[in-house]
Structure formats: C-alpha cells, structure tokens
C-alpha cells in the first residue's frame, strides 16, 4: 500500500520575519508552484497542482505539511478537485499537518466535484501545539454527470481529526453516499446541493468572534442555511448548505477576513487562480 | 422479563431525571421554522435522527463500550467518551449531553455499587473524561448482565421516548399521537440495533448535515423551551 500516485512534502520555517520552505518535495501527480508572497507580511502562499486534472480509479495521494514555530503559510489548490468514476478502487487522499507553537496555516481548498460513479475518501490529521492556529475550508458540490443529474457520485467521505498537544479535540466525519440516502430529505441536504465547512482552531477564538461572524453571515434571504458553533477546543466551525459554490465562497471569504483581522490584524490576499 | 432487564428498564423511563426533558437536539429549530408541525413531519425528523445521527454516534459507541467492558479494556471506554464528545460539534448539544451524562452518572451511582461507575466519575472530576449518557447506560446494562443488543435497544428507546414527550409539549401533539409514534418506532429501533451491530468502527461519528446545522442554529433561536 505504499504506491502513491502523488506525494507532497512541505516543511516551512520562519527566517527574519519571512516564512520560507525548509524542505519541499513532490513526486508523481502532485506539484506545487513556486512560493508566492502576496504582501509584506512574510506569510507565504503555495498553490497545489494536480497535473493529471483529476483523481482516477484507485489513485492515492499523500501530503505532509509541517510548520515550525512562527511560520505562516497559505495552502490552496489551483482549481477544483475532480474525482472521476472509480469502478474498482475509491480514490484516496491522506494529509498530515503538523503545526508548531505560534505557527499559522490557512488551508483553503477548492470545491470537490464527484463525477458519476465516483468514490473518494479523504483523511486529514492535524497535530497542533498550543499556540498554533489552523484555518481550514472546503466545499462539497453535488458533482457532475453527463445528464446533469445531481449526486450521481457513489461516495464522498471526508474525515478530519485535530489533535491539540496529542489529545483528540475535533473529529469531523462527513460521508455522503447518495444511493443509501434521500439526499433532499429533512435533516440531510434538505434540498440544497452544496455543503461548505470552515473550521478554525486557535487560542484567540472566542464567543465574541463567533457573534461577529454570525451577524455578518446569518441568512436573511433563504438561499442558504448556515450554522455556527464553538468547538470542544478553543475554535469554531461554520457549516453552510447552499446551491452554488459562489454562495459558500462568499461566506467563507467574509469569515476568513473577519477572522484574520481579529486574530492577526491582517487582510487575507486574493488567491489568483485560472 | 427477568429482574435484571426490569432494572435496566428503570433507566428508560422518560421521567428518569437526567434532564432529557430540556433537550431537543435541534428539533426545536425545525419546529420554529414550521418544518416539523405534526405527527407525520415529527416522525420523519425522528427517523433521520435515529438512523443518521444516533446510530453512528451513541448507538455505535454503546456497542463498542459494551465490547470493551466485556474485554476489561477500560482505556477503550475512555477513548469512546472522548470520541463522542469531540465529534459532537454543535456546542449546545455537546454540552447538554455532557451534563446529562453527569446527572445520570450521579443518579445511578446512588442506585448501583459498581466500581466502573466510580472510576468514570472520578475521571470526569479530574477532567480526564467528559461524561455521556450512552456510556453510563451501557455500563449499567453490562453490569446487570443484560445482553448487548438489548442494552443498545433500550438505550435507543430511552432517547426516543424522551424526544416524543418533548415533541408532544413543543409542537404540540396529542398524547395519543405521541404514543402512536412510539409504537411505530418499535420496528425502526429493532432495525437500528441490527444496523449498529453491522457497522464498522470506521463508521463512527458520521454526521447528517441538516440535523447538525439545525443543532448549531438552535443557539440563535430567540424564544425557546429547550436548552438544545
């Protein structure tokens, strides 16, 4: 089971106020572009590319990201993650993230698009030290099929585990298998097509910040449904049901800006993509 | 029914004072949005709650805790206590459940002299554990020598009988309608137990997006009769 379709290793550290890669390695169907410094904050941004254009049957991807003390990194994908049909083996991605004290990782992923008959499993493990900050967001779409049918994929499963000083503090398990569910039903997707999640873990997150976010993004028109809450550890989650990627992106961007301002007094950079 | 099963039955009574009467697990959000307003819509909600949420969290945990107690692997029990808490991301539901676990533990601690209950209480006091009603209930079922599947079944029954009473008050429903729901759920619960016995450990904590969201939204519900 060690045949990876794509491997990515990235270790970054802080040097004189600037975050630089200490170690970058990638192989197979994973690539990162050259680092980008969007502003003068010293925070570095890496774009992850999937030169193959999508995940195929039985593909296995492994990513390991490590930030040393005080390092600040934005990690994002270049475009949506497409999962094509997987007749034999689900596609799989595992990610390990290690965050030392004082480091900050924002991991903003593009939408996940499951094609007809696709199966995909993702496991993300984050190991943080107290004093580190982690911001993550994802969007799961209703997928793609030639006849426009929604939820034609077979399985999208995303497991995220966050450890703080070796103790499990957040466990998030999303498993959508449309064949076994009436997706539109009450309590499930409730007639919406897209599911967005944003998770932030960091010592400075508190109920005041949650209130601010709530007032900025709570629904008034009914074209989306949103829930916000404080996590079992100092941190928060924003969950959104909506009908388009854009609706969720807009909410995520608003939250991201408020969080950056509140936590670091910075403004996130616009992530240019094709 | 033998004496031991009868003893476990005491914990299923919706009057058993664990505080379950003040938690709706997001049901109140749906009632206020008028998505749950009668026996049919309530049954629909309860169906999803049992089959999507309860089965993958409390239900599977109960089974695994029972196994762990059987094997004397207490570390496994404490691990599940943490898993149950950290997979419960809506704050009100998480904190409410924790409080119920604590109350239930204190209460059964006065009824039963079981070492593992004392251990659990001690760990909660030391903040090494959180407390969860499914774990306390399973500990008693195991102690009484009731079978694993019956323990799980009775636990699920205890949850829905409280929820039905809450729905009767909040929607409101007639008492007869409430009893009809409970009767209608007897097969659903039996099937849920079969499902739980067939699950893998990896199925733990799967969320139902809409339910979870409604539990988070409850924090912002203005006029409320429930704490979650």
From TrEMBL, chain A:
One of its GO terms (molecular function) is nickel cation binding. Pfam families: UreD. Signal peptide: none annotated. Its main location: cytoplasm. The keyword RNA-binding does not apply. It comes from the Bacteria. InterPro entries: UreD (IPR002669). It is found in: Cytoplasm. GO terms for cellular component: cytoplasm. UreD, UreF and UreG form a complex that acts as a GTP-hydrolysis-dependent molecular chaperone, activating the urease apoprotein by helping to assemble the nickel containing metallocenter of UreC. The UreE protein probably delivers the nickel. Belongs to the UreD family. Required for maturation of urease via the functional incorporation of the urease nickel metallocenter. This is Urease accessory protein UreD. It comes from Paenibacillus dendrobii. The gene is ureD.
TrEMBL record, chain B:
One of its GO terms (molecular function) is nickel cation binding. One of its GO terms (cellular component) is cytoplasm. Its main location: cytoplasm. It is found in: Cytoplasm. Keywords: Chaperone, Cytoplasm, Nickel insertion. InterPro entries: UreF, UreF_sf. Pfam families: UreF. The keyword Cytoplasm applies. Belongs to the UreF family. UreD, UreF and UreG form a complex that acts as a GTP-hydrolysis-dependent molecular chaperone, activating the urease apoprotein by helping to assemble the nickel containing metallocenter of UreC. The UreE protein probably delivers the nickel. Required for maturation of urease via the functional incorporation of the urease nickel metallocenter. This is Urease accessory protein UreF. It comes from Paenibacillus dendrobii.
